[in-house]
Design brief:
With 114 residues, this protein is mainly alpha-helical. It has one domain (7-89, 100-110): DNA polymerase, domain 1. 52% of the residues lie in helices and 4% in strands. It contains four helices and two strands. The chain has helices spanning 7-17, 22-38, 49-61, 67-84; strands at residues 105-106, 109-110. It has a two-stranded antiparallel ribbon with strand order 1-2. Helix 2 (22-38) crosses helix 4 (67-84) and helix 3 (49-61) runs antiparallel to helix 4 (67-84). The termini are far apart.
């Protein structure tokens, strides 16, 4: 008797069927796992938009990720809900957005650590 595939196995399978790149698969799986762990291992089926907003706000405020990283996490979660769970999460998920760091130029040189 075979066991049903896990959530992550389903994600990997659908991403491969859609011919997504391996780096996309790796990123999506990483952020989906982080999302589940952030919410104390609750199944995503039990969660919705408020939990997605809370996770994205955590990434922006506490983890201080770049805006592009936050966008990847959002894309991963939208893929999970739309393609795997077949659950509508609405049109727009407003959350605290990560801020771009601005370089400060002093005397023609960048004063940041870039």
């Amino acid at each position: 008797m075979t066991r049903p595939p896990t959530l992550i196995e389903k994600v990997r399978e659908v991403l491969r069927l859609k011919h997504m790149s391996l780096s996309t698969e790796t990123s999506y799986v990483f952020y989906i796992r982080r999302f589940v762990r952030f919410h104390h291992n609750r199944h995503p089926r039990e969660m919705g938009v408020p939990e997605i907003r809370a996770y994205l706000a955590h990434l922006a405020v506490e983890a201080k990720v770049a805006p592009s990283t936050q966008n990847v996490a959002l894309s991963a979660l939208l893929f999970l809900y739309r393609e795997i769970l077949r659950k509508d999460v609405g049109g727009r998920i407003d959350s605290v957005r990560a801020q771009r760091r601005r370089a400060v130029f002093v005397g023609g040189e960048c004063a940041c650590s870039c």
